[in-house]
Amino acid sequence: MAKSSIEKLNLFQQKLKTLEQIRRKQEVLFSEGKIVRRDIEEVYSALLLNAVASFEGFIEEFFIGLLAGQICSGHSNVRVRVKIKSYVVARDVFLREKKYFNWLPYKNTKDAAKVFFTGGRPFTDITATEEKHLEKCLAIRNAIAHQSRHAIKTFRESALTGLSLIPRDRRPKSFLRSQFSLAPPTTYYQQLIAEILRIADKLC
Fold first, then answer.
1. Are 48 and 140 in contact (CB under 8 A)?
2. How many domains, in total, are found in the chain?
3. DSSP codes of every residue in 76-135
4. What is the pLDDT along the chain (204 residues), one digit of tens a residue?
5. Whole-structure pTM value
6. 140, 160, 194, 199: least surrounded by Cβ within 10 Å?
7. How far apart are CA 9 and CA 64, in angstroms?
8. What is the C-alpha separation between 27 and 78, in angstroms, rounded?
9. Long-range Cβ contacts of 100-103 (<8 Å, 24+ apart)
């Protein structure tokens, strides 16, 4: 019997809640002077890498689950073009002997969805603005993970354009902890994650 897509969403949401609990604990340690700024910036970087990887994992399990008929979409207009009754077989058919698939940039996901789902839905229901947000998250992840000139340039163009930040906060690791809003107090990391969760909810 197919499971509701909400179950998969809840698991992803719980993962993000766990990461948020870690973030809050580290902020307490920082306020008490038990860790220094460099330490907490490394924590934010690790949290972002973990969150983006978890989103990619969510997309893969949701996509293959829908393809295999093991997950039931909350959208009535989702139609699978190829009937496959096994998750393992569906994954093998999708990967076609490749070891993995890059779900981000999100264009990769949309292109794959158009092959296996009528109209690519629900994956093609993501707006240009939402897709741009995912590209921003990817740019930040790459700038942290690779630190190459190209990665840093892409990060600056994607995440910093139009923002007035002090020089320190224009670095990827410091950017995540900088203030997105003061009321309520929200970091850019929290804003990025909240939007990722909203996009995941929209897909389900």
1. yes
2. 1
3. TT--BSS----HHHHHHHHHTT-S-----SHHHHHHHHHHHBGGGTTGGGS-HHHHHHHH
4. 678 899 999 999 999 999 999 999 999 999 999 999 999 999 999 999 999 999 999 999 999 999 999 999 999 999 999 888 899 999 998 998 788 899 999 999 999 999 999 999 999 999 999 999 999 999 999 999 988 999 999 999 999 999 999 999 999 999 999 999 999 999 999 999 999 999 999 999
5. 0.95
6. 194
7. 14
8. 42
9. 101/60, 103/56, 103/59, 103/60, 103/63
122 cis-preceded (ω within 30 degrees of 0) = yes
Beta carbons of 3 and 70 less than 8 angstroms apart: yes
Phi, psi of 112 (to 5 degrees): -65, -40
The tokens describing 37, both together, are 């700024």
Name the one residue in this structure whose structure tokens are 């994607």.
158
